[in-house]
Write a structure and sequence with these properties.
With 218 residues, this protein is of the alpha+beta class. The chain has 5 helices and 7 strands; from the N terminus they run E-E-H-E-E-E-H-H-H-H-E-E. The chain folds into 2 domains: 125 residues, Nucleoside Triphosphate Pyrophosphohydrolase (Alpha-Beta Complex), CATH 3.90.79.10; 79 residues, Winged helix-like DNA-binding domain superfamily/Winged helix DNA-binding domain (Arc Repressor Mutant, subunit A, Orthogonal Bundle). The strands form 3 sheets. A 3-stranded antiparallel β-sheet has the order 2-1-5. The longest helix has 18 residues.
């Protein structure tokens, strides 16, 4: 998440097939590795990003014609990170970058192989997770404002949520957020700084989003 926009990490392929096109970081599993170990190693090698214990498997893709070189089955993983930091291309990747998901889903960015399908599935998985888990808090810091938390839902779902209703549902119900007694730094426009909260125990049992009246997804 960057400035209220959901991003995903991609690498630009440095070799055939699909040389020069953006793709999801990945590669071939070594005989002595588990799937989890291979996913973590490839991410480090291609982007410099290490996410121990954060990778979650969400799908497998095995169309016999998805790779022109050979029959390849891809097992896909995702990780939700608040602050990715600097990324760098390595091994067979020509570049690595965070790209807004909206640019990919709109077709502005062409992806190699069947990676657009994988991206769509990963986003849908996160959308579902927002409803049934506490994954929303993974997008924000240990302390956060209600506006920052609301932005997570709006960015992932592509909807606008009423700020007053969001606050009423999150704060009034109890258990979702706990006031820290502190306030965020004032923004450039000035005004009263927003209250800071931390996640409550209720997130361990799911997410509160089913309490909201959602608009149609864009």
């Amino acid at each position: 998440m960057s400035e209220g926009t959901l991003h995903m990490l991609f690498v630009r392929r440095g070799e055939a097939p699909f040389e020069g096109m953006w793709a999801i970081p990945g590669g071939f599993k070594r005989p002595t590795e588990t799937l989890d170990e291979a996913a973590r190693r490839e991410l480090v090698e291609e982007t410099g990003l290490d996410v121990p214990s954060l990778l979650t498997q969400f799908g497998a893709y095995g169309d016999p014609e998805r790779d022109p070189r050979m029959n390849v089955v891809t097992v896909a993983y995702l990780a939700v990170l608040r602050d990715v930091g600097a990324v760098m291309a390595g091994t067979d990747a020509a570049d690595a970058a965070l790209i807004p998901v909206s640019d990919v889903l709109s077709g502005s960015i062409d992806l190699a192989f069947d990676h657009l399908e994988i991206v769509r599935d990963s986003i849908e998985r996160v959308r579902i997770e927002l409803e049934v888990t506490g994954i929303a808090t993974a997008f924000v810091g240990t302390t956060f404002t209600l506006a920052e938390l609301r932005t997570v839902y709006e960015a992932v779902w592509g909807v606008q949520l009423d700020a007053a209703n969001f606050r009423r549902s999150i704060v009034a119900e109890g258990g979702w957020v706990i006031p820290t007694g502190r306030r965020a730094r004032p923004g450039p426009a000035g005004g009263r700084p927003a209250e800071l909260y931390r996640a409550g125990r209720a997130w361990s049992h799911g997410g509160p989003i089913h309490r909201f009246q959602r608009e149609e997804r864009k």
